[in-house]
Amino acid sequence: MKITRIAIALVGVIALCTLYFGSWNNAPWQTDSTVIRGDGQAFYAWLPAVCIHHDLSFRYYQDTALHIGEYFSERFLYPHARGKVLKTPCGEALMVLPFFAANLGLRTLGGSSSTGYEPSFQRALGLAAWCYWLAGLWLMALVMRRYVSSDGWMAASIVATALGTNLWYYAVFHPSMSHVYSFFLVAACCLLWLKWSESGKKHWPLLLAALLGLVYLVRPVNLVVIAFFPVLSGGSGFLRNVRALFSRWKLLLSAALLFCLVAGLQHALNHAQCGDAFAWTYKHEGFNFLHARMGSVGWSFNKGFFVYAPLALLALCGVLWWDRSRKVWFIAFFLLLSWLTASWWNWNYGSGLGMRPLVDFYACLFLPMAFWSSAPTWGQRVLLALTGAAVGLCQLQTWQFNHRIIHPEEMDANKYRHVWLRTDDSAVDCLGGGNELPLGALSDSPLFTRAASFGRPDSLWHTLIAAPVASASGESLYAGLLNDTILYNASVFLPVLPAMRSETWMIYLQSDRLEPSPDAAARAVWVFTYQDSKGKTTWYNKLRINDYPRKEINRWESFRYQLRMPAMQAGRDEKCLVYIYNPEGKKFLVDNVHIAGYSYDWQP
């Protein structure tokens, strides 16, 4: 692909839109201290550990003099018999290394000491993601050029993919996550495969093997990109390349060796940490291929691919103009990728915007969009109008997500309907969660159960005011009252059992709630907390009593919550408490509280 005026304009449009919409959306690089956050802390942690602190045990985070404890969590360390191993692979850190090293060098030359988390390092990471994003889009354009001749449609497809999907969010607003780096690698693998198919020169498969090794270092399951090669070459072209590779055994051996050398870096680091090169750091996590949630991955209001990236529907329609061979291979690849994604134990992949594992493959999934250039003129006009709407919706949903209007983990149809197209202040933080998935199968019998009914004198909640409530039959019942003088209710102390100290466990809570006025319990939360013997909080989490605001009044509604509870610290005299906090002091009633704890039934 030649560097044409339209290609230069393409990069300029994307860059300017990044600056403008990034400011509009409160991009993290505006604060310099929020770039490295969430799971991205673990992906990044390899760099300061190796290059600055020279400590693969990661104990330096406990040094209070460094003031970097907020950038790391013990949950990222997998306990091994011979030491702790960082859970996440090192591939992203390797890709960010040039930006990290350049910043470290400049700081060293300027006489400044470094922890690896100063604002300049945060900006360097944001710059790295932005560069890989633009480079990945450029590589995607080079792949597209081999199938379509229209510069205009190619440019429209690239701009729409860049700004009209959640790839935009992970490139600009959460650059410490691995998705934009995987997007670049997948696009590069596709281009190298085509280069080899076109020229047959042996250096292309060698480069491809090394790149696949890097794909493995970032996210091993992304090696499924190999299944996209028949789409690029057609079934016959793919088989021809495979036969050519196996007929040249020296080339095949060299490629395999190169892949192993690159991929082996992770195992070398694991061995340096605990002496076990093949330590499995995702304990009790994995795939359940027989219970894949493919429908949820595509259409659920909680992260559904087509819900949070509706542009994908338009892109996939471009397959209609492919030849039959590529069409069949593409459908097979999409089903395979969806099945793998939906088979993960936590099919919604936790906090994030949209179905984030699929972001890695947008160079593949949005390739068919350019084939709309073969559609009739009226179809192209319809597509352009729908594409503009899809890009606008993506930008709005990104804004909602960044302003805490869209819940980061637990959306559903009712919540999505409640915040649809809303930007008003009352929509901020109006949604609650409370339905975390268990890590695996739970034990048949609960660890404990607790029940509270306010009409009984032996209620667990006896210090809370019991307010009389008339039932439908006229009988006087009692429920727990919260109002402007009762902001906290009495705590329920749960038993502390050995299973709660050894592993993560699950807590289930059910309760009824009545609001005498609209949104009376809108800000009230259930609080789950551990406290030491001195009453100091060692861990806590909170869940909204209402998952979304209701306007109905004087009606009892039932709610169910489930939450993963971390293992309590061994050797520490900790208590486990549950209570309600009502910060606004509005009056509402609760009753029929049931609490149960479950341990996991880990299979040997």
Distinctive features:
604 residues, alpha+beta, six-stranded antiparallel sheet, 18 helices, globular
Q: Could you tell me the strand content as a percent range? A: 5-15%
Kindly, what is the distance between the CA atoms of the first and last residues, rounded to a whole number of angstroms? 54 Å
Number of strands: 12
Mean pLDDT: 87
- Contiguous runs where pLDDT drops below 50 for at least 5 residues: 471-476
- What does the overall shape look like? globular
Radius of gyration: 27 Å
User: Number of helical runs?
Assistant: 18
Largest sheet: 6 strands, antiparallel
Class inferred from helices and paired strands:
alpha+beta
Task: Please explain how this structure is put together.
By secondary structure, the chain is an alpha+beta fold. The protein is built from 18 helices and twelve strands. It has helices spanning 5-24, 40-53, 91-109, 119-145, 151-163, 167-172, 179-199, 203-218, 229-247, 249-274, 294-299, 305-308, 311-317, 324-343, 362-365, 377-402, 413-419, 498-502, and strands at residues 77-80, 83-86, 448-452, 466-470, 476-482, 492-494, 505-514, 525-531, 537-544, 557-565, 575-581, 588-598. Strands 3, 4, 5, 7, 10 and 12 form a six-stranded antiparallel β-sheet that branches. The protein has a four-stranded antiparallel β-sheet with strand order 6-11-8-9, with no helix packed on it. A hairpin with a 5-residue loop joins strand 8 and strand 9 (537-544). Helix 2 (40-53) packs across helix 3 and helix 7 crosses helix 9 (229-247). The radius of gyration is 27 Å and the shape is globular. The termini are far apart.
